């Protein structure tokens, strides 16, 4: 059955919102270097684990998560959450949302190959799902599979063109496969959208250095330091 136009639009908005949340979470982990266990994404019925309760460590008011990554208690929490998600996926193997939830949990535990498998399965089930494509691009970046990440990240920026984080990740992938012009353009776009994006400014400097444009690179490094100090 074909869905009404307004329902399709609402669904697209929901997917874009989840994709934006994934990108912001990825930026949080990248900026802090933490591998804290994220609460699984809220599923379509409004519950993360089927009982309306959330799992994992929550932000503590200052933007950071409680608990100490790598500690015995956090590892126990991770295993418990993963076991719950394993059971949920076993019961609903065609649930895209549950596959994304489990992939996020696996990624937070550093199990990127398993996370990739879940996300690729989810993408087969729902090829237009931007949240799945976003998560897959991030996982491929974490695995160092830069070339594999590029087409997914291009799809993301095509839909999330307003997101400096999406452009930054695309720039990182392009830089690693030596598409220097493409990387520079992506980092410049990220900095245009967020002039205080210190990492995007610094990355521009690195690409300019690689392009043998040291004076321009020095200017970008200085701008990056200024942005980071604000």
Your description of this structure?
This protein has 230 residues and is an all-alpha fold. It folds into two domains: 1-160, Serine Threonine Protein Phosphatase 5, Tetratricopeptide repeat (Alpha Horseshoe); 161-230, Serine Threonine Protein Phosphatase 5, Tetratricopeptide repeat (Alpha Horseshoe), CATH 1.25.40.10. Helices cover 69% and strands 0% of the residues. It has helices at residues 5-32, 72-91, 96-108, 112-125, 130-142, 146-159, 164-176, 180-193, 198-210, 214-229. Helix 5 (130-142) runs antiparallel to helix 6 (146-159) and helix 8 (180-193) packs antiparallel against helix 9. The longest helix is centred in the N-terminal third of the chain and has 28 residues, at 5-32. It is elongated. It starts with a helix and ends with a helix. Mean pLDDT is 79; it is low at 1-5 and 28-69.
Q: What structural category arises from helix and sheet content?
A: mainly alpha
The top-level CATH class of the largest domain is Mainly Alpha
Run of helices and strands:
HHHHHHHHHH
CATH topology of the largest domain: Serine Threonine Protein Phosphatase 5, Tetratricopeptide repeat
Annotation field: number of helices: 10
Write the CATH architecture name of the largest domain. Alpha Horseshoe
**E-strand count:** 0
For the largest beta-sheet, the strand count, sense and barrel status come to: none
CATH homologous superfamily title of the largest domain = Tetratricopeptide repeat domain
**Roughly how many Å is the radius of gyration?**
19 Å
Which percent band covers the strand fraction? Answer: under 5%
Query: Roughly how much helix do the residues carry, as a percent range?
Result: 55-70%
Provide the residue-averaged pLDDT. 79
Overall shape: it is elongated
Low-confidence segments, ≥5 residues, pLDDT <50? 1-5, 28-69
What is the distance, rounded to the nearest whole angstrom, between the alpha carbons of the first and last residues? 53 Å
Domain count: the total is 2
């Amino acid at each position: 059955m074909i869905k009404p136009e307004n329902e399709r639009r609402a669904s697209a908005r929901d997917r874009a919102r989840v994709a934006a949340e994934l990108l912001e979470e990825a930026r949080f982990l990248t900026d802090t270097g933490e591998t804290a266990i994220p609460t699984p994404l809220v599923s379509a019925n409004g519950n993360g684990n089927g009982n309306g309760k959330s799992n994992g460590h929550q932000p503590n008011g200052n933007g950071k998560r409680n608990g100490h990554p790598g500690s015995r208690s956090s590892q126990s929490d991770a295993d418990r959450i993963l076991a719950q998600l394993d059971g949920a996926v076993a019961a609903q193997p065609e649930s895209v949302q549950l596959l994304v939830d489990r992939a996020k949990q696996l990624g937070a535990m550093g199990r990127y190959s398993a996370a990739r498998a879940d996300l690729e399965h989810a993408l087969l089930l729902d090829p237009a799902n931007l949240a799945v494509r976003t998560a897959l691009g991030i996982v491929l970046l974490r695995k160092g599979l830069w070339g594999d990440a590029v087409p997914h990240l291009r799809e993301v920026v095509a839909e999330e063109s307003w997101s400096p984080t999406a452009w930054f990740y695309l720039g990182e992938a392009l830089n690693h496969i030596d598409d220097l012009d493409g990387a520079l353009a992506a980092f410049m776009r990220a900095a245009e959208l967020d002039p205080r994006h210190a990492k995007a400014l610094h990355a521009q400097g690195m690409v300019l250095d690689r392009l043998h444009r040291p004076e321009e690179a020095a200017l970008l490094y200085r701008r990056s330091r200024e942005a980071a100090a604000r």
